[in-house]
């Protein structure tokens, strides 16, 4: 299972909370896996350079045609800003026809805590 482990982008705020987002995607066909993975890597690089990103991880299960992301953000505005910028905006449009299913969940954590895949899977309904 190709996985990009948690990478800290920027230190979390010393106090307060961070916004965490987990996502799950399943593509329709095996031929959609490689293009989706390529685009997921582009978004991963975008997040690594994004203002307000605290950290990010990607989990790919090519034989199941599934992908999961996990990220933490200074606030919801920083997360929303990345979603609305290139290349994320174009990638969402391009991959929509190839996507058979998706799920997203958001929660907050104290600034000093890191999200876990276990928590993300539970919140996504063990997808």
Describe the protein in words.
With 127 residues, the protein is of the alpha+beta class. It has one domain: 2-Layer Sandwich (Alpha-Beta Plaits). 31% of the residues lie in helices and 36% in strands. The chain contains 4 helices and 5 strands. A 5-stranded antiparallel beta sheet has the order 1-3-4-2-5, with helices on both faces. The radius of gyration is 14 Å and the shape is globular.
Index terms:
127 residues, Alpha-Beta Plaits, 4 helices, 31% helix, five-stranded antiparallel beta sheet, alpha+beta, globular
In short:
The protein has 127 residues and is an alpha+beta fold. The protein is built from four helices and five strands; from the N terminus they run ββαββααβα.
């Amino acid at each position: 299972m190709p996985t990009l482990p948690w990478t800290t982008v920027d230190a979390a705020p010393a106090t307060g909370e961070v916004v965490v987002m987990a996502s799950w995607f399943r593509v329709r066909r095996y031929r959609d896996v490689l293009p989706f993975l390529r685009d997921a890597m582009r978004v991963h690089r975008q997040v690594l350079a994004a203002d307000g990103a605290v950290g990010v991880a990607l989990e790919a299960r090519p034989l199941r045609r599934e992908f999961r992301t996990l990220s933490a953000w200074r606030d919801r505005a920083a997360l929303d800003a990345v979603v609305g910028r290139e290349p994320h905006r174009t990638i969402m449009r391009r991959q929509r026809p190839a996507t058979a299913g998706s799920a997203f969940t958001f929660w907050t954590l104290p600034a000093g805590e890191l999200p876990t895949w276990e928590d993300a899977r539970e919140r996504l309904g063990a997808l």
